[in-house]
Prior knowledge:
The chain is an alpha/beta fold. The protein is built from six helices and five strands, in the order βαβαβαβαβαα. It has helices spanning 14-24, 37-46, 63-71, 91-99, 112-152, 170-173, and strands at 6-10, 30-34, 49-55, 81-85, 104-107. It is elongated and about 70 Å long.
Amino acid sequence: MPSEAKILIVDDHEDTLYALESALAPLGYRLTRATSGDAALKEVLRGQVGLLLLDVRMPGVSGLDVVHYMRGVEQTQHIPVILLTGFGPDAELTSAAFRLGVADLVMKPIDPWALRTKVRYLYDAHERSHALEREVRDLRARLKDHEELKSANGDDHRDKGRVPAQHDGAKDRA
């Protein structure tokens, strides 16, 4: 069951956005789009983005610029990014992309089946990570509440080092 997080698709060409949306539609995830790096940053900072598919070369703010900025902001630094390029293999681009922590660099034209597989894996892994983070926060809050309650009741030092009495129920039967 898809969560509330969406997949943001960013490209400056409408036909590419349409093709990517068509390829990803069978997955059932919420999709949203942006046509520039600036618009992508605004959308990511609003929250609820679980994965970003991002064209590398766009006018103004490039895809690499977007990723560089995202990695410097705590709320966006762990969002998985798949960079898309139509300019063929480029060792310098590949090196820069992976230094920034992108999940993958995909060449256009894109194989829809391969893209769906990568997107499903990355999106689901990101969602599992968020679920674990929420569970840890909840457990820490419960532990803190428990410790505060013990402290308020004066129980924090009384039972330390004392072995609890064993009760086998024999006296209850007599």
